[in-house]
């Protein structure tokens, strides 16, 4: 009897053990968590109090001296320094897709006045709301205007034209200028120099083939 009882108990123990080991892929006890504060981290909404920082602010400023990913270094251009405007330039070079994006931005922010054809016949002028025609960017006066002067006009505004610094970041401003200079180069202006190196090489090769 005792032997039979022992066998039954052993069988039950083994059965329970096997059942405990095989839960069908469902683990009801996840075990120990090494860093619970990371697994169950406290979330804070923007502009709410945050006890983790000395100033109690959740929204943080960028680290001093750093540049956000995807952004450019500050241009340090000063409003009113027209001499600096004339020599101000960029090392950025743009692909065909980026120049096309510059055209899209031009049509959004500039075309309303300068016209999508850059002829100064934008909808606002054509409607009779402005007495003076906006700059015709294909006119000889503007065909070879320094890029820095154009950049300053976008950043600070010029005459009745307001600033677009809040609408266009540094790279976007140069993309718009690249588009303008590309169109100007096709209408009697200086050769286009803001294209990506590979595209410039292809253009030079095509020109050499034609010659």
Write the layout of secondary structure elements.
Elements (H helix, E strand, L loop, with lengths): L1 H20 L14 H4 L42 H6 L8 H14 L1 H4 L8 H4 L13 H4 L3 H10 L13 H16 L11 H14 L1
Q: Class by helix and strand content?
A: mainly alpha
DSSP summary: helix tally: 10
Which CATH architecture of the domain at 82-210 is right?
Orthogonal Bundle
Percent helix among the residues? 40-55%
Rounded mean pLDDT score = 85
- Low-pLDDT regions: none
- Our estimate of the beta-strand percent is under 5%
CATH-defined topology of the domain at 82-210: Cytochrome Bc1 Complex, Chain D, domain 2
- Cα separation of the termini: 110 Å
Name of the level-1 CATH class of the domain at 82-210: Mainly Alpha
Q: What is the alpha-carbon Rg in Å?
A: 33 Å
Shape: elongated
Strands, count? 0
Please describe the biggest sheet, giving its number of strands, its sense, and whether it closes into a barrel.
Answer: none
Order of helices and strands: HHHHHHHHHH
């Amino acid at each position: 009897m005792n032997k039979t009882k022992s066998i039954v108990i052993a069988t039950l123990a083994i059965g329970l053990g096997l059942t405990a080991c095989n839960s069908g892929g469902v683990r009801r006890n996840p075990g120990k968590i090494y860093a619970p504060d990371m697994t169950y981290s406290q979330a804070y909404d923007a502009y709410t109090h945050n006890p983790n920082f000395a100033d109690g602010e959740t929204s943080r400023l960028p680290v001093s001296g750093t540049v956000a990913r995807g952004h450019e270094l500050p241009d340090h251009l000063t409003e009113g320094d027209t001499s600096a405007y004339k020599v101000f330039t960029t090392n950025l070079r743009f692909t065909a897709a980026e120049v096309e994006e510059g055209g899209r931005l031009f049509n959004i922010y500039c075309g309303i006045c300068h016209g999508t054809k850059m002829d100064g016949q934008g909808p606002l002028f054509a409607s009779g709301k402005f007495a003076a025609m906006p700059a015709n960017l294909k006119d000889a006066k503007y065909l070879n205007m320094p890029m820095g002067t154009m950049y300053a006009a976008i950043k600070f505004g010029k005459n009745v034209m307001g600033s677009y610094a809040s609408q266009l970041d540094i790279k976007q401003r140069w993309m718009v200028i690249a588009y303008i200079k590309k169109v100007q180069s096709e209408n009697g202006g200086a050769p286009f120099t803001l294209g990506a190196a590979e595209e410039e090489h292809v253009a030079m090769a095509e020109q050499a083939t034609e010659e």
